[in-house]
Amino acid sequence: MALKMVKGSIDRMFDKNLQDLVRGIRNHKEDEAKYISQCIDEIKQELKQDNIAVKANAVCKLTYLQMLGYDISWAAFNIIEVMSASKFTFKRIGYLAASQCFHEGTDVIMLTTNQIRKDLSSPSQYDTGVALTGLSCFVTPDLARDLANDIMTLMSHTKPYIRKKAVLIMYKVFLKYPESLRPAFPRLKEKLEDPDPGVQSAAVNVICELARRNPKNYLSLAPLFFKLMTSSTNNWVLIKIIKLFGALTPLEPRLGKKLIEPLTNLIHSTSAMSLLYECVNTVIAVLISLSSGMPNHSASIQLCVQKLRILIEDSDQNLKYLGLLAMSKILRTHPKSVQAHKDLVLQCLDDKDESIRLRALDLLYGMVSKKNLMEIVKKLMTHVDKAEGTTYRDELLTKIIDICSQSNYQHITNFEWYISILVELTRLEGTRHGHLIAAQMLDVAIRVKAIRRFAVSQMSALLDSAHLVASSTQRSGICEVLYAAAWICGEFSEHLQEPQQTLEAMLRPKVTTLPGHIQAVYVQNVVKLYAAILQQKEQAADAQAAQEVTQLLVERLPQFVQSADLEAQERASCILQLVKHVQKLQARDVPVAEEVSALFAGELNPVAPKAQKKVPVPEGLDLDAWINEPLSDSESEDEKPKAIFHDEEPRHAKQRPPEADEQELARRREARKQEQANNPFYIKSSPSPQKRYQDAPGVDHIPVVQIDLSVPLKVPGMPMSDQYVKLEEERRHRQRLEKDKRKRKKRERERRGARRHTSLHTESDEDITPAQRVDIVTEEMPENALPSDEDDKDPNDPYRALDIDLDKPLADSEKLPVQKHRDTETSKSPERQDVTVVEKKSKKPKKKEKKQKEKEREKKKKKEAEKGVDLDFWLSTTPPAATPAPLPPGFLQEEPGVNAAVTAPKEEPRGEEQDAGEDAEQDLEKKPSEQKKKKHKKDKGERSKDKKRPKKRAPPREGDAEPVQNGALREEPLPPMSSYSLLAENSYIKMTYDVQGSLQKDSQVTVSMVLENQSSSFLKNMELNVLDSLNARLARPEGSSVHDGVPVPFQLPPGISNEAQFVFTIQSIVTAQKLKGTLSFIAKNDEGSTHEKLDFKLHFTCTSYLVTTPCYRLDVPTDGSALFPYL
Amino acid sequence: MIKFFLMVNKQGQTRLSKYYEHVEINKRTLLETEVIKSCLSRSNEQCSFIEYKDFKLIYRQYAALFIVVGVNDTENEMAIYEFIHNFVEVLDDYFSRVSELDVSFFSAVNQVFHSAWQRTG
């Protein structure tokens, strides 16, 4: 044995250690891969040895290699071996390796559970620490479930080093095992006030992360965080807290009001830029959540904008970037205050840094108005021209389109200008966004009817210009615009001035180099054009010309028939046959134009992008059901046609003419026409009352000055959008003059006694009327479209599982799973298993506790009072000092009204409540008149006592009977020892009950009744009736008489129990009450149903009127019937 | 939330990597090369934040060594930026004048990293 050890250590001397490996890799620069594979072979040998030191060394080297990108998953088992080494230095290596390469898919991970548990409970804090650190990287749902309880215990470890790690890892546990959140939350909350700043910071971090996803659950912690914020000096913690508040304020605007002041103070005082930035961000969030009307509202927004301006003007690029980023957040809600800094933003467009320019671009989006759109876009266009990188240029391009098309083109006053911009953009080389431009062209041409003539002329010029076609191979992106151009020219061919020329352009041989889907569109639209030309020629009785056109098609179409693209090929061959047929008819002098153009009769209307989604599924239609059973898998595979615009603009994809043979085509056209005629929702092409683009301002409609723009600017080659800018200015100037004139007239009229209100003369945005009277054809929506935009949340979001109501009471089933063999250990801690037991044992421990709590109370009085203040109260007052002032005991009693409106559900741990009740009972029996005062005192003490207690026990409130949520089914029978006492019982049903006072409505008590079905019958129509006494009345639903019963809101299948709650109004709390009552129900079994009754006597002791104090917020029934105010 | 932490030199060699979300090993290499590429392409006069896919990269350059932190969009960029420096100061303290060579012997760095990280949260 000894020899073996010696041998092992000698062997080790010759092994490479990590440093040798690193050196070796550095020395083998040329053949690194070879060297490493050699090393891996050595490592494999080393792993086979028994010596743990050798193994650890091998794993250590593997970890390094893994970091360099080599797969080491094959060594997973060896890693576990090293993890279980007893020596810390080895164990650490093992855990490090595990944290680097284990993940949920690692199958050996389940072998680690017990090892990790052992390490977690190790006496050495470093063993525990390393296990926690490692676990945080590879925790799986299984591990989380099995170890949650152990980790939770560690949260109360004596060493802050461990507490800190345990708190942090709880976040990962919550993510993997959301059920653990509720049981662990009270302790987590406790850690917010941990004496160690590291632990505190860890807890803040965890809650901050949790709250960011589901903020509403953490609203009740706001006072605590507020205190932390005003007292902490740790910037890291402050940043997190402030971030957390940013998430909370949207839910509670009053919180925002309270925050503004300390935040602005911080903004003024802090020197840390990160903190400043966070503060500004949160102030913005606060201001967003606040509706305007706050007096210092604009002051704080001004402060933010000012500070941000300083950031943006700073020479540090990082600050500049962040400033712009934050500015864009303000922009969303307060565009006015940002627009004042337009100069700054435009200046940033010239920045050397691309990311800064991009942020500035984002800001521009919100800064445009009708007035400055052209100017801004012009500036952007110059940037496009000089932009060096394609990514930035593409970004510019999309931004230009975004800016122009935002909110339904609301800033565009002149669509001719816009079309020219789009056409200019087509000159961009190598952009990826050809399809975007194309989509815009289509959208504008379809939806803005007035622009079609101009659009068509521009598009035909595009088709004519060779540069796009020629470049189709090298810059695939931009030729997409030809798709739009061809479609527009075809669909609106009636606006074409020289259709023949366009037709020829579309039939050039070069076209065949275009991508297939564009060729297909070409073919289809060639026919549309052809139909238009035929009609034109036949009307002119120019048979010769008509035949020539046909001949042209017959000659040129074969080039598409040979296309590699199936779609283009199919369309071309169909159409070729059609044209040949037409040719025959033409030879016989048969007029064909009518019939050919009938192919394309009717108009296509834009369909809203979500139209299809919004068609409600008719009742009784199951879309998932098979119509026919599927034959085999292989046949059901359908090939999807390549819909080029499908992703970006589904509505265009839908408009693509169906490809089918001519008869089918004609038939469909006919059918469509028919359908359109019958569909009252279809917007016909005839001028129907369509939504006008922009309503003219003012009460009286001012007709738009018609400027003769019908003759578009004839610019050979490319149109220049700049000319429009000048033109637009002139137009506006003229308009203004015109308006002034009218205004003057109007004013005169008004002076004469008209009652119209005067409008100030400023050229506001609305004053600019669009150049064209533009109709934006509204998009079609299906009949019965559902109004909502159901933007489904991602069902895979891991955080959704954490959306847990933390205010609900803990149920038995929710306790964290505890390993059986550890039970003895955990129960060593003075756990309050059950109230009744504790109580019966002796009063000794209690007295001790009492003494202790007296001491504690003095210390914690201040804290308690603060903590105890209802969130609502906390929010409703705004003391200038910002910290809620400590309240004298009994404060709330004098002002019970504070509790009237409880926003956040408050909670009440059942155990405590009962305990306090018992406590108070002893005193009460002696001096019932002093009850109120005493009770309060007790409560206070109770609370401070409880603050300490959880540290000692593992899962909170084990064995306690938790009230079940009203209406919730509970499978297992009630635990034997509970605060519920038996009310009545027969062969069918067993009733147990518990009475709780309610301070919220101070004259009410709530009786929670657990009804357990003991028979094999199904119990239904349960109704509870009580003979009211003078003092106590059952609260009945409105409108029912005093003799009516109250229905129980559930039915009971055999063996099931459930809880119902009934509210009683009490006149005097100094008299005990006995109320006679009856529970009637129908028991239904196989033989039939019988009507049954069970009489009971409800006993209200004086103590049952008591209201007790919660220690945790976790345990409150949220159903409103038993809302306990926070005392 | 921090997604990963990288120390990469100008040649693109990873000196330290730490992932807080599991990334497959071959994707890691790919990610690392892309990350360092985008960092190298930036000049001194550009800001230290890069938008990369659906997260943000925050980097700082120390001589030939880049420290890159990938965070999601809810993180405070400036705080991470300051944290990186904080970390480097700790390293410097630990190794007394830290150099890339020190970092390449990584297990010690890992220890430092853990403690530094936990201090700041």
CATH topology of chain B: Beta-Lactamase
Radius of gyration of chain B: 13 Å
Work out the helicity level of chain B.
40-55%
What characterizes the major β-sheet of chain B? Answer: 5 strands, antiparallel
Q: In what order do the strands lie side by side in the largest sheet of chain B?
A: 2-1-5-4-3
- Strand content of chain A is 5-15%
Biggest interface, residues from each chain: A-B, 55 and 37 residues
What is the β-strand count of chain A? 10
**What is the domain tally of chain B?**
1
Distance between the termini of chain A: 70 Å
Question: Rough shape of chain A?
Answer: extended
Number of strands of chain B: 5
- By secondary-structure content and strand pairing, the structural class of chain B works out as alpha+beta
- Quote the average pLDDT of chain A: 72
Biggest beta-sheet profile of chain A:
6 strands, antiparallel
Whole-Å distance between the termini of chain B?
10 Å
- The helix-and-strand class of chain A reads alpha+beta
Describe the structure concisely for a colleague.
Chain A: Keywords: Acetylation, Coiled coil, Cytoplasm, Golgi apparatus, Membrane, Phosphoprotein, Protein transport, Repeat, Transport. The complex is a heterodimer of chains A (1127) and B (121). Chain A is α+β, with helices and mostly antiparallel strands and 1127 residues long.
